[in-house]
Specification:
Blueprint (H helix, E strand, L loop, with lengths): L1 E5 L2 H15 L4 E5 L11 H6 L4
Parallel strand pairs: 1-2
Length: 53
């Protein structure tokens, strides 16, 4: 089975991950968004605190 998630950002990303985890190896999930890059906002705290080093 193939699933296309249209629209990225946090909601689209979350939907794609949940679908893949729920359906396991029975599915190929593709995420389509108009932007080339995605910024995972909850991770910004590690950039600001320099804790990622």
């Amino acid at each position: 089975m193939k699933i296309l998630v249209v629209g990225g950002n946090f909601a689209g990303f979350t939907a794609a991950i949940l679908l893949k985890n729920k359906l396991k190896e029975n599915v190929e999930v593709t995420l389509l968004d108009r932007n080339e890059k995605f910024l995972f906002v909850p991770s910004l705290i590690w950039c600001l605190s320099n804790a990622g080093r």
